[in-house]
Amino acid sequence: MRALPRSLLGLLQRCERALDAVIQPVVFAGMAALIGVITLQVVSRVLFTAVGWTEEVARFLLVWITFLGATLAFQRGRHIAVTFVVDALPLRLQQLARIAAVLVALGFTVALIVIGHRYMQVQSFQKSASLRISMTWIYAVIPLSGALMSWYALVDLLELLVKGPTAGDPGSSTAEEPPA
């Protein structure tokens, strides 16, 4: 009976790695685009007439990079955590504390989805100044990243429940850097 949860966990972890394989190049491309846009902005201001849309694109890229980068950090267990108290507990209490931490994180990410979706709706009538893009698309990253982090938290929770007190920190099975 333990084989089914472990095989399900393996499948979910493979899905997690596949999501990571998509998000990581998107963040990299966004950072490269941000560098290019800011370089264009500086060069055009110094040598020519300023290109008007560069500031807006840079701002939007930074928003998307921030949220998607936070998603990658969450998946890899790289957000700030103080674990010395939990590490001092017996194994069973460590597991309970980690489960509680994942549940709190899950609550936060679900709130991020709900609030982000509401914010998208409030901003849906507005268009960006230069590009005339609906602000819905700019703020769509908020509930998207919340949903991705919720997925990662659910996988971490399942890992803690299936593997027991020896599962380690949430995100530990995927905390190492993926191969380049």
Structure description:
The structure is a single chain. The protein has helices at residues 3-47, 54-75, 84-88, 91-123, 135-139, 141-163. The longest helix is centred in the N-terminal third of the chain and has 45 residues, at 3-47. The two termini are 36 Å apart. By secondary structure, the chain is mostly helical. α2 (54-75) runs parallel beside α6 (141-163). Mean pLDDT is 88; it is low at 170-176.
Features of the shown structure:
single chain, 180 residues, mainly alpha, 6 helices
Indicate the topology.
Layout: H1 3-47, H2 54-75, H3 84-88, H4 91-123, H5 135-139, H6 141-163
Helix pairs in contact: 1-2, 1-6, 2-6, 4-6
Radius of gyration: 20 Å
Strand fraction equals under 5%
Q: Roughly what is the average pLDDT, rounded to an integer?
A: 88
N-to-C CA distance: 36 Å
Oligomer: single chain
Q: What structural class should be given to the helix and strand makeup?
A: mainly alpha
Topology pattern, helix = H, strand = E:
HHHHHH
Q: In one word, what is the shape?
A: elongated
Low-confidence stretches: 170-176
- Count of DSSP strands: 0
Number of DSSP helices?
6
Proportion of helical residues: over 70%
Query: Main beta sheet: strand number and arrangement?
Result: none
Summarize the structure in short.
The protein has 180 residues and is an all-alpha fold.
